[in-house]
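lol so apparently i was supposed to do this last week
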Amino acid sequence: RAFCPKGRCQGKVNPNIKKDVAKVVDSVDIEDITEKAAFCRCWRSKKFPYCDGSHGPMNKELGDNVGPIIVKHK
Ligand code: FES
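anyway here it is w/ FE2/S2 (inorganic) cluster bound
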């Protein structure tokens, strides 16, 4: 499957992001978000931690419904 490269999806949420570290932790300063930002929750974005829309084709292939969390200023 395209979304499970090299069989890495077996029981894992994260198939291929920063696999060289023990724990993936990202920090974003709220001041750097100008209007809004979409953060990936599917672990498939090539712009992680930001959403790049990869959840769409993944949902279609896997029959799932995950999407980003959007942070925005009021
Ligand atoms: Fe992962 Fe959009 S790419 S939630």
